[in-house]
Design a protein that fits this description.
With 378 residues, this protein is of the alpha+beta class. Helices cover 41% and strands 12% of the residues. The chain contains 16 helices and 11 strands. The structure holds iron/sulfur cluster (SF4) (2 copies). The site of one iron/sulfur cluster has 13 residues, from α14.
């Protein structure tokens, strides 16, 4: 089998994950910088669903001990995701999809060497030119959604539990914080300026949090520390963006509008209305008391996606409701309490569990469940 055949198999395999991964020159360039042909060949045989090494050993005909050693090496390199069991035989391994293996893992460590700098350019280009394009149409859901800053909501005691960033923290059992992989990869790319936002703001929970700490890209923190960091994010204007499901959140990003996976396509690819399928919260900026507004323009300046325009000469605000993602960043710093986050008539349609979310993604790609189950187990 030639090197190109191995890469082709791996690229086709990546495209079978729930995240559509169009194959083109940029993808080939970034894959070749990250994996060898031998690695590509091996990765193309691993399932997307977490699977025991015994099952994989049977399928691939590789002795169990040898296989576990190999899988652990790939996991260290961030190409395979592993959930530790009580013994190595009970570990669960799955091949990393494009977001995991190319948009998270290489950047989490904050490594700034030439290799990472070289990799950053095609990875950034592929995201905005190819991957993100498919994420900005009304259908495809995104893995993250926005939730408002709690105290900006009209009645914070009545906030929807799955949109309350503090209540969401009570539903998880392990907290880890890492440097933002999105900002790291943009900071390394000579085509972008250094992000002005704080770096250590990406949270992972449960098994994913433990995994981050085990491979040395995260540090275990207490819930109180999480709350302190969240406060800093609110001050800086970063958008709280948890996993797009209600139960067992595994990620809570704090998104920089220009550089993060969730907000970058909205800022750069959508100038008009933002479809609600892009995981808006159930809240929208509204007047609390228009009379109180001193026309300072701060809300427009803090809006991460330009949903508010401030015409300075006329001292006029134009609010584009169809663009508002319901993050509350405008309300948070309004000096006169003139605005507030009000609940929309129709709450956000958030999947219940991670599996419900995956099923939704697959449906949006026109893939039925039977085919999907085969695809992620193959
Ligand atoms: S107007 Fe902008 S800052 Fe305010 S809630 Fe909407 S998206 Fe967020
Ligand atoms: S921040 Fe508040 S006071 Fe300033 S322009 Fe916006 S709504 Fe008005």
């Amino acid at each position: 089998m030639s090197d190109n055949d191995s890469y082709e198999k791996y690229l086709k395999h990546l495209n079978k994950s729930p995240i559509a991964t169009p194959i083109n020159e940029t993808l080939i360039e970034m894959v070749k910088k990250r994996v060898t042909p031998e690695e590509a060949e091996f990765l193309s045989k691993l399932p997307f669903r977490g699977t025991t090494p015994r099952k994989i050993s049977k399928k691939l005909g590789i002795p169990l001990d040898e296989l576990i050693e190999k899988l652990d090496k790939y996991a260290e390199k961030g190409l395979v995701y592993s959930i530790k069991g009580s013994t190595p035989n009970k570990n669960l391994y799955s091949v990393g999809d494009v977001l995991f293996a190319y948009y998270r893992m290489p950047w989490w460590s904050g490594n700034k060497d030439d290799y990472h700098s070289d990799l950053s350019t095609p990875v950034n280009k592929y995201y905005i030119d190819d991957l993100a394009n498919s994420l900005t149409t009304p259908g495809p859901s995104q893995g993250l959604r926005s939730v408002p800053v709690n105290e900006t909501v009209e009645d914070p005691s009545d906030i929807l539990p799955y949109e309350d960033v503090v209540q969401l923290l009570d539903t998880v059992d392990y907290y880890s914080v890492s440097p933002c992989p999105c900002r790291t990869r943009h900071n390394l790319d000579p085509n972008f300026e250094e992000s002005k936002y704080p770096m250590e703001v990406c949270f992972h929970f449960g098994d994913l949090g433990k995994y981050c700490d085990e491979i040395g890209v995260g540090r275990n923190v207490t819930k109180e520390e999480v709350l302190e960091i969240l406060k800093k994010c609110e001050e800086a204007g970063l958008v709280h963006a948890p996993s797009s499901w209600r139960e067992r959140m595994d990620t809570l990003c704090n998104c920089d509008p220009e550089y993060c996976l969730y907000t970058e396509p909205i800022v750069k690819l959508l100038s008009g209305p933002v479809p609600r399928g892009l995981q808006h919260s159930s809240y929208v900026r509204d007047w609390a008391d228009e009379e109180k507004c001193i026309k300072c323009g701060l809300c427009a300046k803090r809006c991460p996606i330009d949903a508010i325009e401030f015409i300075k000469d006329e001292k006029k605000l134009i609010f584009k409701e169809e663009r508002c993602m319901g993050c509350g960043q405008c309300v948070y710093k309004c000096p006169s309490e003139a605005i507030v986050m009000k609940q929309r008539d129709e709450p956000a349609d958030v999947a219940k569990t991670p599996m419900d979310f995956v099923v939704r993604l697959l449906k949006e790609r026109g893939i039925d469940l039977e085919t999907a189950a085969k695809m992620i187990d193959d």
